[in-house]
Task: structure prediction
Amino acid sequence: MIHLVAHNLPLVMFTSVMVMLLLGYPVAFTLAAGGLIFFVFGVELSHISPDIRLFWPLLQSHPERIYGIMYNDTLLSIPFFTFMGIILERSRMAEDLLDTIGQLFGPIRGGLAYAVILVGALLGATTGVVAASVMAMGLISLPIMMRYGYNRPLVSGTIAASGTLAQIVPPSLVLIVMADQLGRSVGDMYVGALYPALLIIAAYCLYIFAVTLVKPEWAPALPQEARTLGNGVTSLIVMIAISVGLYFLGIEILFTGIASEEWRLVAALAFSVVACYGVALANSRMEKKIISRLAEQVIIVLIPPLALIFLVLGTIFLGIATPTEGGAMGATGALILALAKGRLTLTSIKTALDSTTRLSAFVMMILIGARVFGLTFYGINGNVWIEDLMLALPGGEYGFLIVVTIIVFILGCFLDFFEIAFIMVPLLAPVADKLGIDLVWFGIILGINLQTSFLTPPFGFSLFFLRSIAPTSNWVDKVTGKTMPPVKTTEIYRGVFPYIIIQFIMIIVVIAFPGLVMHYKDEQPTVKPADVQIQLQGGGNNNNPLGLPPLNPGSSGGGSAPSMGLPPLNLGGPAPSGAAAPAAPQLGLPPLNLGGPAPAGTTAPAAPAAPAPSQPDLSQPPKF
Result:
């Protein structure tokens, strides 16, 4: 029995730890305790199984491994983005965005649902926190959509699914952790996630459009009396066209003196956006309006968060800032926006700092536990066991991706994405790399998968977040005064199923078309070994910058006199035409002649006399 346990210790350890996690024990302490307990077992069983390579002095490596987490520059961006998101949430940016975009899309059927999806994408690109997005949109949009007769499961599913966009839309915390665990650049992960994120947003909007065609009563248009900003879309389109014209004016004329293309683009964008924003601010203070009130409000509300998104993501994509620097600029920009709106208080700053500290400590503790677990698991050859198991799957890389998708999806129903990223990804990444799978592509697939797991009943975290703020009993609408029924848990579950199907389709699309992610490589210069050519040319001074004598392998060719005073190298061919014969070598050495005629004007050196061979005296013993 002991021999059986010793030879299957990786399976016993992995199963034991996963069972403890599923029972609800704290993740960090479960990982650390599992690592230490099985370390003791491994040392005691090391004399039975040659695969176990654990010994007591190995415990001394833990302080250095834990210290390595503390100075990880990549993980430093997590508190910056968390602080930025919480400050923006406290400044009620989601409320302003939902109200304005809802007014913009109000005249069309499903306009409020479109607004929720787009605001979810914007919040994901600014906050990067699922809980903040779901709870903010639930508190604001859920009463409004139910007031105007939207289908209740459709409302619940749209809010929960739109909030999970923070998982995949950069600057997602999931992508930061994935990049760290996969050993890839956060910037590459952000660029690779851009197209899949846009596809998911478009798929959500397409689903709402299909609902408005099949069941128009489920998503009615906003009634005329609710459109407080009136009409004025034409004015907004004109302002967008003017901004685009100002951008090209800056690129082609105003900022041509800027040498760097990236900084020229930034200057042109800033010029057009500031001009457009200035017109909207001036219009709000003028009695005679230049643009419509709808266009004015859309510009004033949308430009600050869009500018913040560009400040964070644009500088990272252009290579101007690292992700950590981008996060620091985003946190500073969020403070400035909240201060400009008059919503920055000492209480909000204290709350944001407390939440950021808790999340950062949570991540660090899980990482420490994962390091302790990993040392023992690798010491008992657990990585080899995982690798052999995964490489034996049929179907090659696609079979591996399908099985991993199923496993991570099931685990995502019970575990947080931090736990999956710190436990499973380090074990799966070497196998993916050995199969030739691009690790950025692999990380994006896992990110979409984890986003899907946020929606799956009964343990989807987004469902819990929405359930916590949705009314559980009859409530009175403040605007109409009507008594509204509560939101049932079954309605939330029914509403998310179409979005779960959409997510699965997106996973299949990203697996089938890796170019959606691989475009991050297009901007990186690559040199193929086959394109490298080495040419040796004799002759002119341009091809001989060091002044070396020409190489003459027996064919005539132009050449200049050696500038270092060395005689030409002649491998049997005639002397170069037009080349003056040296009167005497500058270094006192005769020219090297490997069988060719002696250069004109030189005297052939006399051949040394060969010593006459002597016959050995066989009557005497040899002398040494």
Q: What stands out?
A: DSSP finds 24 helices and four strands in the chain. The two ends are 71 Å apart (CA to CA). The first strand starts at residue 475 and ends at 476. The mean pLDDT is 79.
